[in-house]
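Reminder: ligand-aware prediction takes two inputs, not one.
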Amino acid sequence: MLFGRRKKNPIRITDKGVREWRYATCGYCSTGCSIEVGLNAEGEPVASRGVADADVNRGKLCIKGIFEHELFRKSAGRGDKPLQRTNRWEPFAEATWDAALDRTGDEIRRIQERYGRDAFAIVSTGQIMTEEFYTLGKLARGVIGTNNYDGNTTLCMSSAVSGYKRSFGSDGPPGCYEDFEHTDCLLAFGSNLPEQHPIIYWRLQQVREQRNFPIIVVDPRVTMFAQQADMHLAIAPGTDLVLLNALAHVILEEGLQDRGYIEARTEGFEEFASLVREYDPLTASRICGIDEDTIRNVARLYGKADAAMTIWTMGINQSTHGSDGVVAINNLNLITGNVGKPGGSSLSITGQCNAMGTREWSSCSGLPGYRALEKPQDREEIAKFWGIDPEFFPKKRGMFMTDILPAIETGQIRGLWLIATNPMTSMANTARIRRTLERLDFLVVQDAYHDVETNEYSHVYLPAAVWAEKEGCFTNTERRVNLIRNVCTPHGDSKTDLWIFNQVARRFEQGRKMNFPETAEAVFDELKQLSKGRMLDYSGMSYEKIERKRGIQWPCNEDTAPQGSQRLYTDGVFQHPGGRAKLIALPFIDNNERPDAEYPFWLNSGRVVEHFHTRTRTGKLGNANKFSPTPYMEINPDAAAELGIEHGSYARLTSRRGDAVVMVQCTQRVARDMVFIPFHYHECVNRLSLGLLDPHSRQPAYKQCAVRIEPAGDQAAAAERNRSARAF
Ligand code: SF4
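Here is what comes back for the chain with iron/sulfur cluster:
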């Protein structure tokens, strides 16, 4: 027996005085954990816990979810009053809601009358409720009528959307977490699951404890996931497409494809096969850095598995080949017959808690319910439902977020409404974004936090309620619609986003004629009506049923799928006309910035477990922020020694865009020619990043750019900056 084993201190759980637990869904990542928030006798949120009978998380939460109740009253920087000013360099003055909303409505009208309807742009988020997305879409498309309306999901999931549409004819992840229980081989591209989506990782590990199957992680960095994998393929940045083409090459060369599936369910095979013939493993190895034998081994493992699946995150999406990377993953799964079957799937792991909800219902890329502006029938249907003239709609989608901001530079866009998004931290090339925002005639920022960095450039600030200060639904990575009950009232005089959208609608003549329901549940009823019989059918859902079942995966309708559906395309019928999936030939063109003599290091970026996106929320919660309070860089110890940089000191990185100072962390997790910086910090990694755009998805390549590194000249000043960053 181990010494002292019987003398363990008893575990004491603090009694927080919880009198009532209220049901919600976590508001950070897209895993979609069911969570309960505990209220004390005064009705204050004092605790969070996972919901034991929820299929997604089975009682577990990650560190962000565990402290999520602290978001409400306790987090610093919450906005409690509308603010406005004439010029962005003046101090804000408090305003009434009427004054702030009147001014917003007046400015939108003034800009549109003078410069045209599309001169006013709207950029939203993946963080608000689905009902709010739908209402914003109704307002943007049906009332304000701008075609330059998009979400910050262009920065994270646009490539997945584009890739699904190109391969399968529609957006919509075909698989689910339950696929882990059936798969015989899991390939993960650019996904550090234990840090990005800890509970999905836990689900995977739980299965692996019962049943072993190979996990192959493809990532330039030795991530936490790579450390746990059976095989780690440390790929050269931006070359996933080459590896995927080479895997397909081997599978076809060795006859491991599913001929029956290819023949019955796909088109374009000949052209695809002819292209991948050029990607023999030897040629591919020289581009992607994975040796020939490993490529053959992985292809055989995947091709011979009864069921194999691929998951991916930003390592694929945030690339100039992001959309092609997703299509290449789909190609791999189509030729091996791994779509729509248990354990066989393409499953994008989404970023934000409701990035899926905006894809489904916000009308950013078209019209609600996966309808397209390009289709006359879709325009007619929605116009009739909303009671407006279909000619009011544009005939094709407008700019993506990543094109809207450059269009401000050219004067094409004069006014902007940002909703729960923070481009001053999240967009590549911060210096350019700053100059861009300074050029706006009018910027309105709607956010739960008045100290969000982008608010520095606004004319009007609208304080929004956060997460469970509201009611509504999120859709998670596996198409599960889950509910957030209203846990407490909005902070101060902040308002729900739904209320704000409805109030803006009333400031337009067309908006006053249309129906804008006041409650989220009444909006949800519109979603049910508009989705009935469609791929993303919500018609069999209700708030009560969603809460009871701890989330329901669409399609769900009373007749054919009253309990929801785990997978899409189980019948092998796809959404392209004719019902076949497309195999698409994808030549690789190396168009990224690469290290050279002047800028000799790859700069890679990603997430850490304790922070979410631009730290607007987690930077304010001591229990999250304390683990990574300051920007840091992972650098290989050999490279650091060569540069005369010590562990724990400060270094200055310079790219062709700008510079940043970070604390040095020496680690073998990165190769000698690469550094990694978490993307969460303001004035940090995006001062350096280039963000070239994918031609299909317009998603930026954050992870492939070049920097040079030197010791920070003034270590004391760098340390002082670091100390102030720890102030939260
Ligand atoms: S894994 Fe994601 S959804 Fe679950 S608790 Fe953590 S942040 Fe929330």
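The longest strand covers residues 659-666. The mean pLDDT is 95. We will return to this case in the review session.
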